[in-house]
Each structure stands twice: as structure tokens, then as C-alpha cells.
Specification:
Elements: H1 72-84, H2 89-95, H3 104-116, H4 121-130, H5 140-151, H6 158-164, H7 173-188, H8 204-217, H9 222-231, H10 240-254, H11 259-264, H12 273-287, H13 293-298, H14 301-312, H15 328-332
Helix pairs in contact: 5-7
Amino acid sequence: MVETLHLSSTSNPFPKPNFQSKHSSIIPPLSRPRNLNFPPTTTTKTSIISPLPIPPRTSTQPHQPLPQNPNSSEFQEKLLFLDSLGLDFFSLVTTYPPIVSASISAIKSTISFLYTVGLTPQDLRRALSMCPDIITSPDVVGVLTFLLRDVGVEGRQLRQVIRRRPRLLACSVEQRLRPTLYFLQGTIGIPDLRGHTQLLSCSVESKFVPRIEYIQKLGFSYNDTISMFRRFPSLFCYGIEENLEPKFNYFMVEMGRDLKELKEFPQYFSFSLENRIKPRHRHCVEKGVCLSLPVMLRLNNERFRERLEVCCSSTMPVRTSPLWCINYDDHVL
């Protein structure tokens, strides 16, 4: 008789084996851990955390140094040489990047030549800090030759000329120095420029012409303007907005002076507006004295006060009198 098995979702046809048999006392339970000591195997172990160090290769050839950049030694020599002059190489690079590609031999040659004309290490340090272009100037010899022959500077004056205007050494003789010399001598009429060599490095188009045009706009004729610059060549050095304009406005509005005084004394623009012109003018107004521009501005403080006291205790000539402007320089200065 065939026996029929009835399966149900709630009954398990395959009951769990019962390990609690009569041999359970002999076989230990599987849940109890056992310490098994296995002998080390000879298979290679791989670790992803810390790989084993690879021993260095042994070579029978002698050790050879790595090839270096051939320009690195020259760069180091350049850095040390400039440091010996008291110059910071990296500061020079910031203000004048072409120094990086400059040849060390050319730099040493330029510095050695400047020593021969009387410059001291302090002079060179100051000059190169103000104008690093000198280091790569292609024609330092030509510039000094131009100053000696064309301008008429004496050899013993070269050091003073360079100290006053180091940029001269970085200028081109044919493109800057000689054209400026011809303009100052021919157009302005300054025969001797040995005392104004700093002007030679300036551009005629961008510096001289705008100042001439500004002075003309103030009401001076062309001839009077040229005469003012001939009398006082340093007038080219003053800025228009920062210097000439505010001083001229004070001269006309506050002082109420005549343009003729500026024509005769353009050095007025060389004095400080806040420290000399305004205080001296206020003192004159308080004392009721009208002094000429040279007397009012050139005298030191002590002599200026003395001059005021003399004028207050005596009768001052009126402006229309010839005595007001004749011989004041010879008597007072």
C-alpha cells in the first residue's frame, strides 16, 4: 500500500536533525572555538596595506650624478654677485624682469667699468635700486662719452652727474640724449647744460612740450614762456597738476600779483606752497608789507623777520615806483 505524503505550508517535511544522540558526549559542539596552530606555509602573501620594500638593485657601474641645467650655475653666480653689492636679486626681478636673462659676464663688465669712473659701492647700490635698467644697458660707455664730449661734463664731475640722475646710463644716446640736448640748446637757448644734465634723460614730446603749452595757456607769450624756461630750466621738472597749477592759482587769486613777476622770477614754482609761500604771504599781509617774490621767498626765517621789521618801521615804496624792484637782490640777498 502506497503511503501518501501531505505537504503543508505550516509543516516542514524535512525536520531538523537531532544532534543530541548518544555520540554527543564524544563529538564536541561546533560552537566552541578551538585554537588551531598551523605550520607556516611557503606561499607568497600579498598585502594591500603596506607592501614589502623592494631591495635596491646592485650595479657594478660607479654612481653618476644627475645632469644639471647648464644655466643654474650662472644664475647662482649672478645672485651671489648682486648680493655682494648689497642688492636683493628677487626685488630687482620684481621691478625689472629682464635681469633674469642678463649675462653675468656683461653685468660684471658694467659694474667694473662704473667703478673706474669713481662710483663707490654705495653709489652703485643706490643707482641700481633706482634704475635696474642700468644692469642691461648696452651702451654705458657711449653715454659717458657723450656726457664728456657733447655736454662738456668734466671727468671729476661724472660721479655727481650719475648720482643725481642714474637713469642717464640707461638711455640711448641717439634716440634720447642727443635729441634732448639739441632741443634745450637750440629751441630753449640754454648754452651750458652741465648743471642741468638731469634734463637730458627726459622726453621732449611727453615732458617738455606739455609744460611749455601750459605756461602759454596762463597768459604768457611764446617768447616769454621760452624765456622763463631759459631762466629756470628746472621748471621742466615740476608736475602740472601737482605743482604748477595750485601755485599759480594761489599766486593769482590769493596774492593778486602780476604775471610780470612770474616772468622775472619763475623760481617761484620751486618753493613749497604750504611751507613757504602761504606762510610768508600771510606774514606780509598781517604787517601790511608788499615784498618782491625773491625777497619774500629766498630769505631764511630770521632774515625774513628782520626784513619785515625794517619795512614796518619805514615807508615802503609803492609798486609803481622804480625803487620797488630795482637792486633788491643785491641789497638783501
